[in-house]
Amino acid sequence: RSLGSAAAGDVSGTQGQTRLTPVGRSLGSVPVFRAGALTIGLLPGSREQEIRRIAPVMAGVGAGILKEHPDARFVVPCVNEARARQVQTLIGDLPVDILIGGMHDALSISRCCLVASGTATIEATLFGVPMAIVYKVNPFSYYLARLLVRIRHIGMVNILAEREIAPEFIQHTATVDNILPFMLEIIEDGERRRRMIEDLREIRNRLGGPGASERAAAQILRLLDVG
Question: Residue 139: its pLDDT value, please?
Answer without folding.
Answer: 65
